[in-house]
Amino acid sequence: MGAQASFYSVWLKNSTSVATANFGVATTDPASPFFSAANFPGASSTQLTAAQNLFALLTGRVSSVAADARIDASTGKYVYEGVGLQEGALHEEAAYVQDQWRLKSNLTLNMGVRYDLQQPFSASNSIYSYVDAANLCGLSGANGDSACNIFQPGTMPGQHTVLQQYAAGTDSAKTDYNNFAPSVGVAWTPQNRPGFVGKLMGPNDFVVRGGYARSFSRPAIGDFTNVFNTNPGVRLTNSLTGAQILASAGQSGALLLSNPLVTKSLPFPDAPVYPFPPTSSTNSLAAFDQHVQIPYSDTWQTGITRSIGKDMALEVRYVGTHGYQIWGDFNYNQLNIVSNGFLSEFRTAQANLAANIAAGRGTTFAFTGAPGTNPLPTFLGFFQGLGSASAGNPASYTSANFANATFLGFLAANNPNPFGFASTNTTTGLAGNSTFRTNGLTAGIPANYFQANPDVTNANVRGNRDETYYNGLQMELRRRYSKGLQFQVSYSLDHAWATTYLGFIHGNVFRRPTGTEGDLTHQYKSLVTYDLPFGQGRRFGGGAGGALDRLIGGWQVAVASVIHSGQLVDFGNVRLVGMSKDDVQKMVQLRFDPTGKGLVYMLPEDVITNTINAFNVSATSASGYAGAAPTGRYFAPANNASCIETENSRVGECGEGAVIVAGPLFQQHDITIAKRTKIVGHTTGEFRLEMLNAFNHANFTPGGSGTTANSPTTLSSYQLTALSGTNTSRTVQLVFRFNW
Q: pLDDT for 319-334, tens place per residue?
């Protein structure tokens, strides 16, 4: 029996030492007109920009100044470039009882139970801000105390978001009380049996073991503080252009680094006034699910151990784990393109572009009245602020955005990207660009057209979201030291799965984790040590004298080997053309660049070339590609002319969702040759020759796993670039040691 109590506290001091000055030539700078094509004949725009930036650096021209202010914990006021002090505490209590019973001479039972109680996090000062469900959800309103109404454009029973002061001593969530963790284990040594079972058990020791246990994974303080850190209020940032700084002092021209105004404090409020709205639509909000539970896992195992002779034993066991209620963030500001009808209008925009090109109206997706074009009321509203009544008039479509190259790229038939439009990007996103948002409201488009809370970019609730599974078959053969030889050889067959959260529509799906956190399907490990049978007390030279024994005795050879299947690689949500997942796994082989550049690849050259072609799409060319069209076998974007993913790039509505294969095989063998001899009395000397990766196997690590499928610039995520080595080339070292 036992009990424990723990108290954890957090104490974080953060500050930005100095303001940031950025160099550049502003358009209001008298030197700006100098950098023109007329003054630099033949110079490109890139070269002119580079010359302008160099001039700004050499002459100390400041284009902008950025700084921050933090709440002083003692006064509650903002201090320019001040120090923010975050303080909080977390309590834990636990009690357990466990016992063992010898039910029979060959049967032992262990049972116990543990109770864990983790109190919610609470701040020790009052510098944080927080949002409840109503304010997290904003205009769309809350659905309970931890969820939002989503995907309901035009339905706005809520309110504009404001943040409250998170007062010292306030709990982050309700206490989770039902954390009982039982455990049970059994060990059985059955009597020998006749026949086949007896032969399986062998003449000597045979043991069957099994067990089950539940354990709780209590979150750390950082899992709490980073939620409250997300909310604005603790730290405010501000940035002014050089022209704004000069104008505030009644000056003009260029702001030089020598000007005292550069180091003058930027304007900040004296103190936060609660409640206050988000400082910007680019802010992200975070809160806790008030009913969040402590994560836990169940582990079970069973196995047998059988002796083989008097020196060896074989153990075979199965191990399984299942993790539940792992913490994750639900973003209730998930972009909506379905229930608001935007996806349908996006398809219309694609058709308009093709029809306008066919009719000779140019590369535009506006409704021009050409055959095959149709009105785009949503685009017209966001681009120009005109209501749906104007959408049927081709003369209304005057915005240059309908022919903007970036927007046209989103419409490419071979890789359409509606989320490129419906994004929070402050330049190209209809939900993120402030001008587009204002135009939309003027045109009568609901504020929550794309997101539940249009006041901020993200509205995250931390709650129980994810799960994990692991199943493993493990075998181990052991030989104790006898006659100079001992070894341990093991093999495991592993499979792990973890949930990938796709969004509120598709929820969680189980996929194998990849990268350095992924499981290795096959693993072989061995360690063999052998003392050579020479010298006193050995088979050969047992009667050797002192000098001869020092020469031939005390030699040892050891070999340690590791061989395992390659690190799991995820090629992402792609379409497989001309090949299957099995084909992809078979083609993953090391391929060395024949041009002598020393590059190593894991895919055939034709797959790489055609994949690059497949992602090099065009919205305006006749073929749909900017270069050569792909042929043969290749990876293609998930989105295509007949299918568009409706939630995110990982769902798999149009592509595979995930193409997970094992990378190149890994193997390494280390060899040690050692010699130990007595020098005099109790003094011994030891010499060791150690060869790490003795056979100089070249092991390579795949690049980052693919998570998106939208442009050729992401091809490094699809393992199409050269692999990187693991820096395990052969290393030989000599070791001398004296012991006395």
A: 999 999 999 999 999 9
Judge whether 53 and 31 are in contact, CB under 8 Å: no
Q: State the pLDDT at residue 593.
A: 77
* Whole-angstrom distance, CA of residue 723 vs CA of residue 664: 10
Beta bridge partners of 117: 93
User: Where does residue 567 fall: left (phi above 0), alpha (psi -120 to 50 degrees), or beta otherwise?
Assistant: beta
Q: What is the DSSP letter of 652?
A: -
Cβ-based neighbours of 582, under 8 Å, separated by 6 or more? none
Cβ neighbours for 252, distance < 8 A, ≥ 6 positions apart: 28, 246
What pTM, to 2 d.p., does this model score?
Answer: 0.86
Do residues 65 and 257 make contact, with C-beta atoms less than 8 angstroms apart?
no
Residues 562 and 580: their CA atoms lie apart, in Å, by 30
Alpha helical stretches, state H, 428-587: 434-442, 546-552, 581-587
Confidence of residue 663 (pLDDT cuts 50, 70, 90): confident
**225 DSSP assignment:** H
Write out the DSSP string of 60-102.
TBEEEEEEEEEE-TTT--EEET-EEEEEEEEEEEEEEEEEEEE
Smallest CA-to-CA distance from 121 within 217, 15, 226, 232 is with: 226
Do 525 and 561 form a contact (C-beta atoms < 8 A)?
yes
Integer Cα distance of 415 and 256 in angstroms: 47
SS (H, E, C) 306-349: EEECCCEEEEEEEEEEEEEEEEEEEECCCCCCCCCCHHHHHHHH
* Domain extent listing, the chain: 2-81+234-271, 87-225+288-331, 342-450, 529-739
CA distance 722 to 381: 46
With H, G, I as helix, E, B as strand and everything else as coil, classify residue 133.
helix
Shortest CA distance to 360 belongs to which of 350, 371, 349? 371
Instruction: Specify the DSSP class assigned to residue 256.
Output: B
**CA–CA separation, 615 vs 611, rounded Å?**
6
CB contact at 8 A, 564 and 524: yes
Residue 357, token pair as written in the block: 């090109």
CB within 8 Å of 597: residues ≥ 6 apart: none
Q: Please report where in the chains the tokens 């914990």 appear, as a residue.
A: 73
Beta strand ranges found along 217-311 (DSSP E): 235-241, 284-288, 296-308
Q: What is the CA radius of gyration of the chain?
A: 34
Rounded-to-integer distance, Cα 204 and Cα 199, Å: 11
How big is the CA angle at 100 (ends 97 and 103), to the nearest 5 degrees?
A: 145
Check: CB of residue 205 under 8 Å from CB of residue 307: yes
* Matching residue, tokens 């000597």: 204
DSSP string for residues in 584-600: HHHH---EE-TTSS--E
Query: Which 3 state secondary structure label does DSSP give 474?
Result: strand
Q: Which tokens hold the place of 526?
A: 């061995």
- Residue 600: closest CA among 450, 700, 676: 700
Q: How many other C-beta atoms can be found within 10 angstroms of the C-beta atom of residue 204? A: 12
What would you measure as the largest C-alpha separation in the chain, in angstroms?
Answer: 110
* CA pseudo-torsion sign 291, 292, 293, 299: positive
Helix, strand, or coil (residue 682): coil
Binning pLDDT at 50, 70 and 90, where does residue 119 land?
very high
Please choose, from the candidates 45, 113, 60, 66, the residue with its C-alpha nearest in 3D space to the C-alpha of residue 255. Answer: 60
**Residue 194 pLDDT > 80:** no
